[in-house]
Design a protein that fits this description.
Blueprint (H helix, E strand, L loop, with lengths): L9 H12 L6 H29 L8 H8 L1
C-alpha cells in the first residue's frame, strides 16, 4: 500500500477525528479510504445516469461492438 500525504484544513481534521471517535471507522486512514470509495461509487452511478439520459435523447450508438470499436481506432 502507498502512503499519500495531503494538506487538509483543521475543520476536515476535526471531522475525520469525530468520525473515528464515534466509531464510523477505526482509523483516520480508514475514514479517508471509505470516503474515496464512496466518491468512486457516486461517480460510477453518475456516469451510468448520464449514459442513460443520453440514450433517452437518442445519442446512443447502435450496432455491433467490434465494428464500432474498429471505427474508433
Amino acid at each position: 500500500m502507498i502512503t499519500l500525504s495531503i494538506p487538509v484544513s483543521s475543520d476536515i481534521v476535526n471531522f475525520i477525528n469525530s468520525l473515528v471517535k464515534r466509531g464510523d471507522a477505526s482509523t483516520k486512514a480508514e475514514v479517508v479510504r471509505q470516503a474515496l470509495a464512496r466518491y468512486a461509487e457516486d461517480r460510477a452511478v453518475e456516469d451510468v445516469l448520464i449514459a442513460e439520459q443520453e440514450m433517452c435523447e437518442g445519442k446512443g450508438i447502435k450496432g455491433d461492438l467490434r465494428t464500432i470499436l474498429a471505427k474508433i481506432k
